C-alpha cells in the first residue's frame, strides 16, 4: 500500500505504523497488522504529515530496544497492550533514535487537556497561554523570532516537570554533555523517555497543547518535537553566563527550526538579553515555568552571570522539517572520559550529599 492509504487512514483518524519494505521480516513474527510503504519520500513526508509512526531500517536500527518499542507503538495503534522497551537508554545515539518514536507519540496526543499528568490524562499548558495567538505570533516576528512567556504550563504539568528534573540530577539517565565545562554550564542529555507518566519526553514532547502553541506562534506550518534529546542544564554559582550568539541551525529549514529554554528555577540575578528586529535590546530575568522560543539563525541573545546564585533550564528543539543541516552531525558524538569536569560534577551530585553547585 502507498501514500493514498496513509492519507485515507489519517482522514479516518486511524493510527498506523509505516514500515519500509522488508522491516517486518527483520522484526520476526507476532508484530501484527502493519502498513508497508515504498520509498523515503512517502516515509518522510506523507507518513509524517498523516501522523504515522515511521520506522525505516536505514534511519532507525532495529535492535532489541527498538523492537520492544515498536511492538509497544503497534499496540497503541491497535488499542491493545504490547511489550515495553527497557526502562532506560544508555547512550546519546540511542536517545536520538528513541526521540524519533517520541515524536510519533507527540503527534498521537489529542485535545487541549489540562488535567494532572497521570493515567488517562495528558500534559497541558495554562488556558492563558493559548489566548491571543495571533498577537503572540506578531510579537515573535517583531522580536526577530524570539518570544518569552511566563506561567506557561498548567499546575499539574509544571509540578511533574519539577519532580522529574530533581530526580534526573541524581540519575544515570542524565548523560554528561562533554561540551560543558562544569562551571559556567553543567548538565547533560536526558536519556530516559520510557516513564510514560513522569518522563520529560512525555511532558514536553508529548504535550499536544504545547505543540499547537509552537506551531501557531512560529507561523510556518505544523511543528513537532525534534529527534535531538532534551538537555537539562544549570548555570552554577560561578557561571559567567554565555556570550552573545544566534542559535545554531541544526535542521535544514531555519524557519522551521526552533530552540527552547524552559526555566526550571532562577535563584540568581542571571538575565537573558536579546535584540529585536528594530535593534532594540531587551533584558529579561527569566522565572520558573517560563518558556523562551528562539528561531535558528535569528535574534542574537546572551546569558548573564549568576553572581553566586544558580539558574537551571531545559533545552530542546521543535521542527517542521526533519532533514538535517551540516552542523547537526557535529553534535551526534558525545564522548569523554572521567577527566571531563562536567562529568565529574554530575558524578558527585549522584552520590549522597554530593557536590551542590
Based on CA atoms alone, the radius of gyration comes out at 20 Å
Derived structural class: alpha+beta
Distance between the termini: 56 Å
Number of helical runs?
Answer: 10
Helical content stands at: 25-40%
Low-confidence residue ranges: 14-89, 106-116
Overall shape: globular
Largest sheet, in brief, is: 8 strands, antiparallel
Any chance you could write out the topology, listing elements then pairs?
Blueprint: H1 3-11, E1 17-20, H2 23-27, E2 35-37, H3 40-50, E3 53-55, H4 64-78, H5 92-108, H6 133-142, E4 146-149, H7 155-168, E5 174-176, E6 186-190, H8 200-205, H9 208-218, E7 224-225, E8 231-235, E9 242-245, E10 257-267, E11 272-275, E12 281-284, E13 290-295, E14 301-303, E15 310-319, H10 341-350
Parallel strand pairs: 1-2, 1-3
Antiparallel strand pairs: 4-13, 5-6, 6-8, 7-15, 8-15, 9-14, 10-13, 10-15, 11-12, 11-14
List keywords for this structure.
single chain; about 350 residues; alpha+beta; 15 strands; about 30% helix; globular
How does this structure look, described?
- 30% of the residues lie in helices and 20% in strands.
- The protein has 357 residues and is of the alpha+beta class.
- Strands 4, 5, 6, 7, 8, 10, 13 and 15 form an eight-stranded antiparallel β-sheet that branches. A four-stranded antiparallel β-sheet has the order 9-14-11-12, with no helix packed on it. A three-stranded parallel β-sheet has the order 2-1-3.
- Helix 1 packs parallel to helix 3 (40-50), helix 4 runs parallel beside helix 5 and helix 6 packs across helix 9.
- Mean pLDDT is 76; it is low at 14-89 and 106-116.
